[in-house]
Write a structure and sequence with these properties.
alpha+beta, six-stranded antiparallel β-sheet, globular, binds adenosine-5'-triphosphate
Length: 738
């Protein structure tokens, strides 16, 4: 039975991969004389790294427990009312000295971060931040305290600036004085939300060739697709695949197989053989033939208990997924313990074999630089060629986030889990980008859950009745909350090295960045856009862009960002098209360019015919105008379900002002309802701030212009990752930690 529960209605697949036949280049970066398996060797560095991570993990877990205990001493049900302000403000700032200096915003409670500018006066812990803050004028909350700047004026300027220019002008400047942050107590965070990142953990590839990736994009790269096809081909040529021979395990059991406990081996193989015989009566189950078949399209034909690989090493147990590239199988591996693995069997077609070689080089680079899997990327265990199918052997994980959401009574994740997943995703992509790798296909289907253990809460009958039949059946009327939202990023089948060939269209539609839709050059920032789409999906429980074509996609992007495409970007689109720079999507003119006015450089939506009649369908108008909204308003609407009608984030307001509006509404409601005992959801300031800053980060990730979009590294330093929340995700974690 397939583990892949397909209950969703959408069919989402990545961009057409026909171009990938020409792709794939050199792995100038992989250690040439060494196989990647050499990295399994215990080196001193690895041991040190292990110890560091173990220390960090136990430190973070202890801190979470402490902070929960602390919260619970006051009131087990609600976050306690904090006496201290969460952020630096005029009154709370403590003057230290007068020297201006550049201040690092690294998370302050990271034991391993020696570069942090943390003031380490005494043992710090998870719930107390002593931190130096830079001043960021586009960030409404953090203002200089005793500087000569008039706070009101600065705030006014800031509001105007943030409304007009979004976050692109978010320049950090240093305060004229150095401040020590007031001790503050924040709500708890999961340890996964606080994972640290230092690129010095691994060696930057290509150092010898001096190709150190710059993980952003220049204006020039909007016009010219970077990357060389020749490098791709050259890289793929360097791939040497071991040919696995299909001899029967019953004739020539390999030495390592015979070293397994004989009873278990016989049991596995015996049962496989019995099932195989009964399943295929018409075929001879002669023991020296492999029962592994390929169809006319080059796909392996799935059959449970098939045996394949050298010496019949793998026994097929389940079909985990299938895509354009091939099939992913859950298999018993007779060589190693624990012996379940996932094997991606690539189609036996030259084009896909060629693309798989790039995937292989990417996976090898990841493996070389993170042999212990600290950065949430799938690890390649082995690779071989079997009957013209390239087979990639990896660890086996749970279902994808997409499948988990489909089978959940409430698809939305708790805020604490959104933050933990965001941290892992951004950190993982930061690692990839530092290695010069662009994933290009980040989506919930390509994010796997490491451990699916969860608690299940019964949903009220009314909620169950409102679910679709499919969801009702799949969820059994329950809301599932993972105990540990640890994830792994998979599917490097479309990933590229930044200096290799870039196909003109990448990503699955819903997660596709505007520069790709507009036919401009793309680079690392496209991954950041995709992550932002995924994060919104985790919060709202459905796809942010449920679209299938370019015009509606562009109209929705403008609606969600609350602003039109910047004219300089559209200008570049026209220029690139006019001068035929780089390769463009074949339908660019007919589905994108024709919808922009050449003079005003604005999108003409809704679409009109020559007579001026609107020809956009009513359904499409509804999807854009009714179903979606500016991001802060859209997310607020969903969160009202948890926090009541008063919850409303307005990204044009500074957080203090936004909060005072909400709290006055709450006060008013409490007075109205005091006699009627109405159960209005309580909302505290820190919970509001958690969501406010989440939306602030999203806004920076959804920057239209990729040259101005926040990088993964800067996103890890965003204020949001210093904020906690007390919700079901935290209590579930705490209850399971003993
Ligand atoms: N290591 C793994 N453990 C568990 N399941 C996996 C693993 N790798 C892949 N899968 C499952 O197989 C599915 C397809 O995997 P993958 O995306 O790598 O293949 P693909 O052929 O590139 O698919 P697509 O063309 O849809 O992108 C995944 O969505 C996931 O459900």
């Amino acid at each position: 039975m397939s583990q892949n529960i397909q209950i969703g209605t959408r069919k989402r697949s990545r961009a057409n991969m026909n171009n990938s036949s020409t792709t794939t280049g050199p792995s100038g970066n992989t250690s040439s004389n060494k196989t990647f398996l050499d990295n399994f060797e215990e080196s001193r560095t690895n041991r040190l790294l292990d110890e560091m991570f173990a220390r960090q993990n136990s430190f973070l877990t202890d801190n979470l427990r402490n902070s929960l205990d602390l919260n619970q001493t006051d009131n087990p049900l609600r976050p306690r009312q904090h006496q201290h302000q969460l952020f630096l403000d005029n009154e709370n700032a403590i003057e230290l000295d007068d020297e201006p200096r550049i201040i690092n915003t690294t998370i302050s409670n990271n034991n391993n971060n020696h570069n942090s500018s943390r003031v380490d006066e005494e043992a710090d812990d998870d719930i107390i931040f002593i931190k130096e803050q830079p001043i960021q004028f586009s960030s409404p909350l953090i203002l200089p305290s005793s500087s000569s700047i008039n706070t009101d004026n600065a705030a006014t300027r800031n509001n105007a600036g943030s409304a007009a220019t979004a976050t692109s002008n978010s320049t950090y400047i240093t305060t004229p004085k150095k401040f020590k942050k007031q001790r503050t107590i924040s709500l708890p965070q999961l340890p996964l939300s606080k994972l640290s990142y230092q690129s010095s953990y691994f060696g930057v590839p290509d150092q010898s060739n001096a190709i150190v990736p710059r993980v952003t994009q220049t204006e020039n790269e909007l016009l010219h697709l970077t990357g060389s096809c020749a490098k791709t081909l050259e890289g793929n040529k360097s791939v040497n695949l071991t040919i696995a021979h299909s001899t029967s395990p019953f004739y020539n059991p390999p030495a390592h197989v015979t070293s397994l406990p004989q009873s278990s081996l016989k049991r596995q193989i015996g049962s496989s053989l019995r099932k195989f015989k009964s399943n295929s009566s018409s075929e001879s189950a002669s023991s020296n033939k492999s029962n592994f078949k390929t169809d006319k399209d080059g796909h392996y034909v799935y059959q449970e208990n098939d045996i394949f690989g050298s010496g019949g090493r793998f026994i097929v147990k389940d079909l985990l997924g299938q895509g354009t590239f091939g099939k992913v199988l859950k298999c018993i591996d007779n060589k190693y313990e624990p012996n379940y693995v996932a094997v991606k069997v690539i189609r036996a077609v030259d084009r896909y074999r060629e693309a798989a070689k790039t995937e292989l080089r990417i996976l090898q680079t990841i493996m070389n630089n993170d042999p212990k899997g600290q950065f949430q990327c799938l690890l390649l265990r082995e690779c071989f060629d079997y009957k013209n199918h390239i087979c990639l052997v990896t660890d086996l994980y749970g279902r994808s986030i997409y499948d988990f959401m489909c089978s959940n009574g409430i698809a939305r994740f708790p805020g604490s889990h959104v933050q933990a997943i965001a941290r892992q995703l951004i950190r993982s992509v930061c690692f990839l980008h530092d290695l010069g790798i662009i994933h290009t296909d980040l989506k919930p289907e390509n994010i796997l859950i490491c451990d699916e253990t969860h608690i299940a809460q019964n949903l009220p009958l009314k909620t169950v009745q409102s679910l679709s039949k499919r969801r009702r059946e799949a969820s059994k009327g329950k809301r599932k909350i993972l105990k540990t939202p640890e994830i792994k990023i998979i599917d490097f089948g479309s990933a590229i090295f930044h200096y290799e060939y870039h196909p003109p269209v990448i990503s699955t539609r819903h997660y596709r960045a505007p520069e790709i839709v507009l036919g401009l050059g793309w680079s690392f920032p496209c991954d950041i856009w995709s992550i932002a789409c995924v994060l919104v999906e985790l919060v709202i429980g459905e796809s942010l862009y449920p679209i299938h074509e370019n015009l509606e996609h562009m109209a929705m992007m403008q609606r969600i960002n609350g602003s039109p495409f910047p004219t300089d970007i559209i200008d570049k689109m026209f220029y690139k098209s006019k001068h035929k720079l780089g390769n463009s999507p074949s339908d660019l003119n007919s589905t994108v360019i024709k919808h922009f006015d050449r003079k005003t450089l604005s999108l003409q939506w809704p679409e009109k015919n020559k007579r001026g009649d609107t020809i956009t369908t009513e359904k499409s108008m509804k999807r854009v105008l009714q179903s979606c909204d500016r991001l802060d308003i859209y997310i607020s609407k969903v969160l009202k379900q948890d926090y009541g009608d008063s919850f409303s984030i307005n990204w044009n307001l500074p957080p203090e002002k936004n909060w005072s509006l909400i709290s006055s509404k709450l006060l008013w409601k409490r007075q109205i309802h005091s006699s009627s005992n109405s159960a209005t959801n309580e909302l505290d300031k820190e919970t509001f701030l958690f969501w406010y800053w989440f939306i602030d980060l999203l806004r920076k990730m959804f920057e239209f212009d990729p040259t101005k979009r926040i990088t993964a590294k800067d996103a890890l330093d965003h204020e949001w990752f210093n904020l906690g929340i007390l919700d079901d995700g935290i209590t579930t974690y705490n209850n399971t930690q003993g």
